[in-house]
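Example record

One chain of 315 residues, shown exactly as stored in the release files.
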Amino acid sequence: MIRSMTGYASRSAELSVPSALSETAAAPGVRLSCQWELRGVNGRGLDLRFRLPDWLDGLEPLLRKRLAGRLARGNVTLSLRLTRADPGAGMRLNAPVLEAALALLAEAEARAKARGLVLAAPTAADLMHLRGVLDSGQDEIAAAPLLPALEAEAEALIADFDAARAAEGAALADILNGQMDRIEALVAEARALLPERQGDQAQAVRGALARLADAPPNGMAQVDPGRLEQELALIAMRGDVTEELDRLTAHAGAARALLAGGAGPVGRKLDFLMQEFNREANTLGAKAQHAGLTRIGLDLKVVIDQMREQVQNVE
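Predicted C-alpha cells for this chain:
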C-alpha cells in the first residue's frame, strides 16, 4: 500500500515525573500536560524539523531516530508543548530578579521626581508580570526520567501519523488507478482509429496526385501504382504510433504494479513514469496527422498532468 507524504496527528497526555528537588523517591512528583502535533507535506527527501522545549536535552535525537525509521520522504514537523498540570504548585518568586526590578523602579522614580514628575506606584500584580519575577519552577522537573515517557508517547503519535498517511495514500491510489483507466481507454480508442487514419492518409495522397495530374498546362503522366503503394507504405511507417501506444499501455501496467506492490516508497519511481507517459503522449501528438488522434493526444496530456500532480504527494 502506498503512503502519502501529507498527514497530521495530535495527542494529549498527562505525565507524572519525579521532582528534581525531591530528596526521596516517595516525594510527590510533578504533573505535566503534553500536547503533541505531527504534520507532514510533500518534499523531495526527508526533512525533519522539531519544536521542543529547549531544556529537554536528548529528546530530539530519540525522536529523529524513530521518525527516520518510519518515514522515507516528506517535510515533517513535530511539535511538543509541555505545561504543568498544576501550574500554581511550581510558581515562586525569583528574589534576585525582583530585587533588580525594584532597584530599577526606585531609580526611575528618583529621575522622575528630579524633573517634577510623580509616577503612579506599581501594584504587586504589575511586579508579578515583569519578565522573570515569577519562576515557573521548571528546574524542579527531572528531565532524565521524563524522556522514556515522552518517547513512548511519541511512538503512539508516529503510529497515528503513519496511519493517516496510509489512509491518504489509499485515496491517492484510487485516484491514480482511475486516471490510468482513462489512459488505457484513450489508448484503446487510438488503436481503433488507426485503420481509419491509414485510409484517410491514402485518400489524401491520391487526391493530391490527382490534382497534380489535372494541373495545367500539360498535366502529369500516369502515376505508377506500385510506386504509389511504396510511398503510402513509407508514410505509414514514418507516422506509425503503434510503439507509442504499446509503451503507454506498458507504463500503465508498471504504475499499477507499483501502486499494488506495497514494497516501500514508490513516489520517485512513479514520478519517473510520469515523464515517460508524457514523452509518449508528446510523440503521439507529433505523429498524429489525424483529428481524432490529435484530440486523443491532448486528452492524454491532460490526464497525465493530473496524475503528475497526485504523484507529487506519494512517498
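Notes: The radius of gyration is 36 Å.
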